[in-house]
């Protein structure tokens, strides 16, 4: 029997958890245009803390999705870039991004209708 992401102990489940993380999706998307420095990524991915950005970048480098290149300059310069594996991953993530942009108005309409039906009338 092969990998089963529905089994919580399967490594494919951990990988799906990683690539389905909101920050991973945004970081991979930000890097699809080319390498960026840590501070540039932090500005591009609005709302991410430095701690979470550091942790997510480290995990993505460990998984082979990004490369981290440190240049021996003063001050130190570090860039992150998608690997071939990361560029391959960016394709389906780009499709998700396009889907979200194309369907956001329908989702918002559904949310509004649900909220109107499930919100108690004010007295």
Output the keywords.
three-stranded antiparallel sheet, 123 residues, mainly alpha, 11% strand, 60% helix, 3 strands, single chain, 5 helices
Q: In order across it, which strands form the biggest sheet?
A: 1-3-2
Morphology: globular
What string, H for helix and E for strand, traces the elements in order?
A: HHEHHEEH
What is the number of E strands? Answer: 3
Range of helix content = 55-70%
Number of helices: 5
The computed structural class is mainly alpha
Main beta-sheet annotation: 3 strands, antiparallel
User: What is the C-alpha radius of gyration, as a whole number of Å?
Assistant: 19 Å
What is the CA–CA distance across the termini? Answer: 59 Å
Beta-strand content: 5-15%
Mean pLDDT: 91
- Give start-end ranges of low-pLDDT stretches: none
Write the layout of secondary structure elements.
Elements: H1 11-19, H2 22-31, E1 36-37, H3 38-44, H4 50-62, E2 66-71, E3 77-82, H5 84-118
What does this structure look like?
This protein is mostly helical and 123 residues long. The protein contains five helices and three strands. It has helices at residues 11-19, 22-31, 38-44, 50-62, 84-118; strands at 36-37, 66-71, 77-82. The chain has a three-stranded antiparallel sheet with strand order 1-3-2. β2 and β3 form a beta hairpin. The longest helix has 35 residues, at 84-118. The termini are far apart. Keywords: DNA-binding, Transcription, Transcription regulation. This is Winged helix-turn-helix transcriptional regulator. InterPro entries: HTH_HxlR, WH-like_DNA-bd_sf, WH_DNA-bd_sf. Residues 10-108 form the HTH hxlR-type domain. It holds the Pfam family HxlR.
